Each structure stands twice: as C-alpha cells, then as structure tokens.
C-alpha cells in the first residue's frame, strides 16, 4: 500500500488526530442532534476498512446543508477531525467550531486510487484454476454443457474473477466473489463425500453458480457500490435468469436438470426472510445454503475479531448482531 497514511484499520483509539483522504461510500441526510446542533454523517472507506464521519455545524442548519451538498458519494474527501467511540464503534468527529477541522473533496492527482479499493490477497488465477479442477470432476453431460455455456465466455470469466461478493457484508473486495465461491465449492465437495446420497454433480455445479448474478450487481471504482440492476433485481434473480438462459442455449437440457439448477440458485439464501424467493426443497439446496452461510458468517466473524483494538475484550458486529470475544 505504499506511502505512510492514516489507514482506517489503524484508527483504534479515542482522541487520535485525523487528517487523511478517504472515499465516501454513503451519505446520511442532515439532522438535528440532542443539543440543537445540526450535523450529518458519512461512511468513508479506504483499502483497509470503513468508518463513520460525523460533521457537526453547531446551530447553523443552512451551513450544514451546504457542506452536505458539497460532497458526493464516490468522491475522495479530506477528513480532518478527531477519532471518538460511539456505541462500541470508532467514528471520526469533524466539528467546524474547532477551527482546524474540515471536510472537502480532493482534486484529481492528489491521491492514489489503489489506496481506496481492497483486493483479494490471494492469486485469482490460482483460485480459478482450483475451481475449474473441481468442475472437471462433474460427469453429468447436461450440467457440464450448462457450465460450458457460462464459463466459455471470456468476458464473464474476467468479471467473475474480479467482482466483489458484496458492498460491505462479506468478501467486499475485488476478487471477493471468486474467493467466496471457491470456499463454498470446497465445502460442498466435502459435504458430498460425507453424504454420498447427495447428487454431487448438482451440488458442485450449484456451488459455483449460486452467486453468479453478482457479476452484474456492483460498480467498482474507488469504492464498491450497487449497480442499478443489482438494486432493482438482486443477484439471486439475475443469477437464476443467467442459468435459465444458459440452459436454453444448450437446447437439450432435460427439464428436471434445468429446474433443479435454477432452484439451487433461488434457494441459496435459505429462507424468504434472507432474500431467497423460494426455500430449499431438495437436500442439495439445503447443503448449499449451509455452506454459503457458513463462509459468509465465518469471514465476517474473523474480520470483526481481527479489527478489534488491543484493549478490547469484545467487539460488536452490528450486521451479525453479536459481540465477539477477543481473548
């Protein structure tokens, strides 16, 4: 990561002076605080993580609104303020009454884009080669044909190897989709050996296909944001349609194979409450859901634990809704 800078991962104590460039991931509208002070919040990030910034403007509501309008989601901003802790999470407080605190967009040429986008630490080509080796074990000719329709497209392969797995929940970095997919496929490989009654070909293929729709769900620049299709349709619907279309292009895929492959994608989140249009109706779909959820949650748990401060006993992860012990 090159030159010395104040990485977000290093902001781990109250009272640290912050003067650094970060990218805006999200803006929350201006509002009034408990003591009549007006403020707004931003979520900013760099290649090591994300943190909330609170911009305080005392009682001047119009000034706070102007400051809010002057910065854009996706823009690089200089944040000058002080670190604080709120609800067990680190934040940066920018209070203009301090005189030196500020928040302003950076100009082109003042930053290195690589500072703001996290990438997998693993070799994408090696991961993809391992995934292909697992797919080579599939013997069902119809399933192999569907996989060939999809992964025979060099453009899709490139997008698959570089896409993130999410905006912020798990594997939210370039190459995260491939990393997550390989982990899920490895798990399904082991599950199929523990339970030989499962259709191994269906399970392995679906492990690779369950998140394929994510290749069209994210925009990647100096930050990761949802695409219009990702927001309006969701990766499960997009992925199910991609599998449907691949089956149609093959021309002679039996209805039972097509239906099961599509069902595996649609049921991959397990329940309607977690985003699946349908719940698992075959044991292979249940196995895939468990493997998918295990990888996503374990990655999140481990990352939350590793981000804890040296004096912390527990760290709170609000997405998981739990306290994680650091001892």
Computed over alpha carbons, the radius of gyration is 23 Å
Q: Largest sheet at a glance? A: 5 strands, mixed, barrel
Q: How many E-type strands?
A: 10
Q: What is the CATH fold-level name of the largest domain?
A: Hypothetical protein af1432
The count of helical stretches stands at 10
- Kindly give the count of domains: 2
Question: Based on CA inertia axes, which overall geometry fits?
Answer: elongated
What proportion strand? Answer: 15-25%
CATH class of the largest domain: Mainly Alpha
**Which regions are unreliable across 5 or more consecutive residues at pLDDT < 50?**
none
- Largest sheet, spatial ordering of strands: 1-2-3-5-4
CATH architecture of the largest domain: Orthogonal Bundle
- The pLDDT mean sits at 91
> Helices and strands: which structural class?
alpha+beta
Order of helices and strands: EEEHEEEHHHHHEEHHHHEE
Percent helix: 25-40%
Characterization of the model:
This protein has helices spanning 61-69, 124-135, 141-151, 154-162, 176-194, 200-209, 228-232, 235-250, 255-266, 283-306; strands at 17-32, 38-46, 49-56, 76-86, 89-95, 102-105, 218-220, 224-226, 314-317, 322-325. It has 327 residues and is an alpha+beta fold. It folds into 2 domains: 8-115, OB fold (Dihydrolipoamide Acetyltransferase, E2P), CATH 2.40.50; 124-305, Hypothetical protein af1432 (Orthogonal Bundle). A 5-stranded mixed beta barrel has the order 1-2-3-5-4. The protein has a two-stranded antiparallel ribbon with strand order 7-8. The protein is elongated, with a radius of gyration of 23 Å. The mean pLDDT is 91.
């Amino acid at each position: 990561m090159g030159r010395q800078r104040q990485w977000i991962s290093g902001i781990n104590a109250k009272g640290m002076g912050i003067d650094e460039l970060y990218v805006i991931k999200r803006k929350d509208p201006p509002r009034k605080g408990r003591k009549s002070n007006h403020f707004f919040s931003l979520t900013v990030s760099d290649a090591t993580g994300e943190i909330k910034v609170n911009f305080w403007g005392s009682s001047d509501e119009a000034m706070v609104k102007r400051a809010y309008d002057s910065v854009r989601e996706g823009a690089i901003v200089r944040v000058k303020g002080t670190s604080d802790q709120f609800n067990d999470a680190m934040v940066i407080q920018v209070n203009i009454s301090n005189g030196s605190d500020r928040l302003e967009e950076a100009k082109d040429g003042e930053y290195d884009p690589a500072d703001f986008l996290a990438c997998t630490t693993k070799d994408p080509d090696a991961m993809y080669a391992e995934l292909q080796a697992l797919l080579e074990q599939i013997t069902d000719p119809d399933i192999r044909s569907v996989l060939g329709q999809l992964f025979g497209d060099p453009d899709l392969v490139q997008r698959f190897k570089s896409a993130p797995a999410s905006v912020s929940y798990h594997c939210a970095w370039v190459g995260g989709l491939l990393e997550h997919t390989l982990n899920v496929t490895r798990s399904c490989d082991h599950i199929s050996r523990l339970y030989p009654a499962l259709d191994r070909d269906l399970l392995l293929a679906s492990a690779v296909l369950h998140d394929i729709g994510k290749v069209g769900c994210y925009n990647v620049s100096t930050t990761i944001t949802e695409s219009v299709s990702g927001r309006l349709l969701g990766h499960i619907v997009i992925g199910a349609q991609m599998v449907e279309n691949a089956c149609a292009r093959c021309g002679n895929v039996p209805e039972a194979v097509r239906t099961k492959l599509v069902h595996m994608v649609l049921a991959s989140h397990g329940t309607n409450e977690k985003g699946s249009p349908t719940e698992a109706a075959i044991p292979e779909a249940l196995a895939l859901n468990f493997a998918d959820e295990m990888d996503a949650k374990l990655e999140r748990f481990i990352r939350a634990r590793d981000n804890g401060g040296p004096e912390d006993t527990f760290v709170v992860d609000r997405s998981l809704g739990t306290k994680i012990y650091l001892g």
